[in-house]
C-alpha cells in the first residue's frame, strides 16, 4: 500500500513537472553577436536543447553580426536605454557586465538560480568572482575562452620545414622564411576595428608578462613603460607580414586564409577553433602567442536577466539550460571554448580543448581587455580605436602618448 502511494506520488510529480515545462509559452528573445562559423553552431546547440524542453516557446534569435560585439554592443545600448531590453543578452563577464549593466541598475540579480542549480559548487572561483557584485550573482557564464593563441596551417609548416614560433625572435625568423617563399606569414582582418587590438593585447602580455600586463589596468604598470614601447615597435614589425587586404576582412575571413592555405599563421581567440571545426578543417596546429608561455589570457561569455525582460520565466528556463552540464558541453564542443563548469566529461572534447582545460588549471590567468574582462567599456573602446589608428599610421611615439592619455582619462594615474 505504502509503495503504491509513493509510486503515485512520484508519477504525479513527474507529470506535473513535464506539464509545467510544456506550459512555458510565448517568446524568448536571445541577443548576441554569434553569427560566424562556430559561434552560430554553438548558439544553435543551446537553442536546440531549450526547444526540446520547451517546445511551445518561440525563440527569437536576435543576432547583430560583427565579431567581439563590434556592432551588437551599440544596438544593445540603444535598446536598454530606450526601455526595450532583449529577454537576455550576451555579455562578457567582468567589467563589461558589472560596470556597464549591473552598477547602473539594469539587471536583476540571479543568486536564487545559483542556489537552486548549485552552480557555485561547480564553477571556478575566478569565474564566479567576475559575475558577482555586492554579494549577488548577475549572469551565467557559458564558457571560458582563451584569447592568446597562435594558430597555424600545419601543411605549410611541414612543407617548409618550419617550427611554430614561441618567441618574437622565432616569429620573425619564421615570417621571413615564409615571405621569401611568397606565402603570407600572418593573417589579419581589421574590418570590424577590434582585431588588431586583440593581437596587440597578446603582444603586451608577451612583452610585459602576466603581472606587468595586469598592472596596465590598475595603474601598477605605467603606459609610458619602455616595455610598452617595445610592444608597439614589435607590433609595428608584425604588421609588415600581414595580408594586404586585411581592412576588408573580418576575424573569420582572416581565419579562412589559414583554412585555404593562403596564409600560415594568425593570432586569435579560440573561437577560431570553433570556426575551423565548422569548416571541417583539421589541419591546424596551435601554440601560445609569442612570449605568452604559461599565461592564460581569459574571457567568459555570459547571459543574464535584464530588468523588465518581457518573458522573464522563459529567460530563467534558458539560463538554467546555459548553466547545465548538458548545455555547457553541447555549446562548447562547437564554440571552441571550455565549459565554465568543471564537472563536464572532458573526454568528449577534442585535443585543443582538452589541453586548454589543463592549462586553465596550471597557467597564470590574466583578464582579456578586448573582450571585456580587464577594463571598463569606455577604456576598451578608446584602446581599440588608438590601435586601429596605429595600423594605418604606425607612429610609436604618438600612439604610446595616446595610450597614456586614455589611461588617465579612465581614472588610472600615470
Ligand atoms: C568575443 C566573444 C567570443 C567570440 C568573439 C568573436 O568577444 O567572447 O564568444 O564570439 O568575440 O566574435
UniProtKB/TrEMBL annotation:
Residue stretches spanning the membrane: none
Compartments where located: Periplasm
One Pfam family hit: SBP_bac_1
GO cellular component, one term: periplasmic space
Record keywords: Signal, Transport
A GO term for molecular function: transmembrane transporter activity
InterPro entries found in the cross-reference section: Bact_solute-bd_prot1, SBP
Function: Part of a binding-protein-dependent transport system for a sugar.
Family (UniProt): Belongs to the bacterial solute-binding protein 1 family.
Name of the featured protein: Probable sugar-binding periplasmic protein
